[in-house]
Design brief:
The protein contains 20 helices and 13 strands. The protein is an alpha/beta fold. It has two domains: 301 residues, Rossmann fold (3-Layer(aba) Sandwich), CATH 3.40.50; 204 residues, Glycogen Phosphorylase B (Rossmann fold, 3-Layer(aba) Sandwich), CATH 3.40.50. The longest helix is centred in the N-terminal third of the chain and has 24 residues. It is globular and about 75 Å long. The two termini are 35 Å apart.
Length: 552
Amino acid sequence: MAMTTTIVTILVLIVSIGLLPAVTGYVLRAVLRSIGWSIENKTRERRESIWSRVRAEEEKLRAQRAKSASGPTEDEDWEKVESPPEGKTHDRESTTDGWEGIIGFFHPFCNAGGGGERVLWAAVKATQQRWPKAVCAIYTGDDITKEAMLERVKTRFNIELHPPTVFLVYLSTRKYVLSSMYPFMTLLGQSLGSLIVAYDAFNLLVPDVYIDTMGYAFTIALCKYLFPSVPTGAYVHYPTISTDMLESLDDQTGTKGLNAGSGSGFKGAAKRKYWELFARLYGWVGSKVDVVMTNSSWTSAHINALWGPWRKGLVHKEARVTFPPTAVLELHSAIEVNAQTEAEREPIILYIAQFRPEKNHSLVLRAFARCLENHRRAQRDAAEPRLILIGSVRHGSTDETHIYNLRLLAHELKIREQTTFLFDANWPTVLDHLRRASIGTNAMWNEHFGIGVVEYQAAGLICVVHDSGGPREDIVTDLGPGSAENGNSGATGFRAATEEEFAAAYEAALALPRDEKIAMRLRARQSSLRFTEEEFSKKWIEGVESLLSLAP
């Protein structure tokens, strides 16, 4: 009961600071700081326990190495700060060299298996390699052991981590950030709910540096008020609210997300006002983030627009575009693109995305049904196209219901026999489908970046993506053949927005002459080199070094 009362008090205080005059704010800050001081004292023993556990695991690992075959092993690289690969320089005299401390990564769904999780684990790997004595503590609500988690990371993303300095902090309050908890005012509900989860997290462990890697910016404000000396960072995949969301309320085409066209009438006006007020509160929260990294030009532009006016006095006021890591080089090595491999590709349309409503699988199903119908009507000799949907599933959420509805839609569209659903596929399975498919698609409106789209390019697939967000701004930056803007030269894929446009793009991509297909695949592979894991690591390290320079 006491903890519940404290949490409610903190929620009120945090929101009040953003809304009440300065004098009142000073008083509330003092109250929150006293709570933070109490939490720091209470969790000091747990910090010592974590360091003891890390040292014990390191000793155990050394003993295992001693029993293995002679000669250096890959694990021994963790014993020193690695020299960066060519083009990845950092100041060897930096005061952050040899830094020992705990970096807290707030990622309650670290086992979800999506692009956001690839970013998290690649960030942990880069951090381990640059600061091997640092502990990476992951705040998670997943019921999974560290061993099982790291094995899944290796299987799903082909990222191998150093186990001793990875520590999972298990949260019991994750349910408070689930959208299902808030049928009304969901954005505000989840944001305030994240404060409950963060308060739970800090009562388990107060980090030396705090980084939100999942989009719960309100937790950063809580951290800053409880522990003013702790540097805070955010890797933003998608702004909680954006000007595009406000504009979508007036959209009558039904193509701009889940809230398209919902701004009419009294309820629509109320929703618009609520979103405007929330956007203002969200902007204030952005002023509490010391270093901001974003995953795309689109996200960066929105974050700078929303947070920028509040960040003028900060040392690192501008958001840094840090493209997420993609297994580009691995895909280049594993999958060849040439005349011989072109003969092995099948007329498969591949969609790799988590099974969530915003990924708009239904649009892909309807467009594919139209494409298939046109193929049959034309009585072409070529084999019928097929659709394969691959994605992770958040068990215990509404994802299962969403998948059931998608299966029903496939049945109603009479494409069930030509459509395959694959859940939680491992990396070798994903590789096999990338090797055999011809087209890679993405139908999410304002996809924040699109790691899957880069994977398509690296694997030599012809991309058909939604004409918005990261895929338009950063990835498929040239239009497809026949475009009035670019003509045929330089195209790396197609962009579309409606069911008809997607269907036409699928047909056009499948109908390309063999030589043009190969040329487009090769151009896409070359373009994908902008998004390697190495480039991400370089930018990530720069961001964390900025954070560590702010540490006391």
